[in-house]
Amino acid sequence: MSTVKRLLCIAASIPMISAHPPIPTRGNSFDWDSTRYLLAFGDSYTYVQGTHGYPNFSFIGDQLNFAYDAKTLLTNKIVQNQTGTAEGGPNWVEFLTKCGLQEGLTSPLHCERQLWDFAFAGADISVEHTPLHHNYTISLVNQIAQYKQYGHPVLSPKVNPTETLIAIWIGINDINDSAKYPVHFPTFYNDLMATLFDSVHVLYALGYRSYLFMNLPPLDRTPGNQATPTPSPNATQVSWFNGALQHHADGFAAANHDANVLVYDAHSVLSDIMDHPARYGVVNTTDFCAGYDQPDIEWNYEAYGCPSPVDTYFWFNSGHLTSHVHEKMVDDLERALKRWK
Predict the structure, then answer these.
(1) Which region is the signal sequence (predicted)?
(2) How far apart are the first and last CA of the chain?
(3) Which CATH number is 22's domain given?
(4) 341 residues of the chain, pLDDT tens digit each
(5) Exposure string (b/e) for 241-256, b if CB count within 10 Å is 16 or more?
(6) Distance from the Cα of residue 324 to its chain's centroid
(7) What is residue 68's three-state secondary structure?
(8) What is the DSSP letter of 227?
């Protein structure tokens, strides 16, 4: 039966606990505890480095090297080091699956909950709406097309769709790249979501039935946006984008009665961390450590003018969250997923 699962976050006074129980649904077939596989798509908030990926951008391949064979995929390993994600350490899908957390190389095949990550750093939804950041960037639409053509035939004998969660976090680049467009933004964001869900239907046709969508973080509160009276994107744009995502997720679930559609309110959770940083071990929400990308930053942070370690900051750099913040968000996300038994 149709299930639209809104994973709503917390009231501001209680850290990391969902504010309200999910709205009752007519079906309840999703079980996080029995989920053995996570297929991830998105941008730099989600990408992990692979031994067969484009350095600093992907787990496997790029737009100029689109095809891969079974051996390449199945021997690929997640790289965990300072540059293995865009966060200086593990990101949310690694914390969620506990796959690839260890320093060094990890095969998804060796994880209890396997992480197959096809996100590409710098991705937007589609060139139909915004240009590629680089000629090798794989857009969200093309990530899914690539997976359909090359990934699914390899993984389908091994990855049972009934034990699989599709995770999609996309839109950070879209809203940043288009923030100054001379368009009616509610309509533009609706068009973006229509394109996104056309690709979600591709995954649905492959047999996948459980979907997790992450809404946008408070991008109006990046260090740069906090320093200006005219943030871009602004809070209204972020709200419109997130509203369009929810609307299309509702529509997708209504049209596909056997689909589990989970929309997680990452925006509210991350906003709560910014509003109450001490509760989460965060001391700086307005700036980032200038030496974040230096090889000795973990222990030599003071040499770069940073009064405390990088993992005490909310922002890793001008637009990414620290690994610590990813971990704190996942504390709540996993509890929310477990409620859907």
Answers:
(1) 1-19
(2) 15
(3) 3.40.50.1110
(4) 444 444 433 222 223 323 333 333 334 579 999 999 999 999 999 999 999 999 999 999 999 999 999 999 999 999 999 999 999 999 999 999 999 999 999 999 999 999 999 999 999 999 999 999 999 999 999 999 999 999 999 999 999 999 999 999 999 999 999 999 999 999 999 999 999 999 999 999 999 999 999 999 999 999 999 999 999 999 999 999 999 999 999 999 999 999 999 999 999 999 999 999 999 999 999 999 999 999 999 999 999 999 999 999 999 999 999 999 999 999 999 999 998 76
(5) bbebbbebbeebbeeb
(6) 15
(7) coil
(8) T
Element (H, E) at 139: none
Q: Phi and psi of 305, rounded to 5°? A: 80, 20
Phi-psi domain of 140 (left: phi exceeds 0; alpha: psi -120 through 50; beta: other):
alpha
The SS3 call for residue 112 is coil
Closest CA to 65 of 50, 45, 82: 50
**55, two tokens:** 């350095």
Residue 325's identity, in one-letter code, is V
Grouping H, G, I as helix, E, B as strand and the rest as coil, residue 214 is: strand
Helical segments of 147-214, H only: 152-155, 172-178, 185-205
Closest to 179 in 3D by CA, of 192, 163, 162: 192
Sign of the Cα torsion 198, 199, 202, 204 reads negative
| 14 DSSP 8-state letter | S
Domain around 180: 3-338
What is the side-by-side order of every strand in the sheet holding 78-80?
Answer: 49-50, 78-80, 104-106
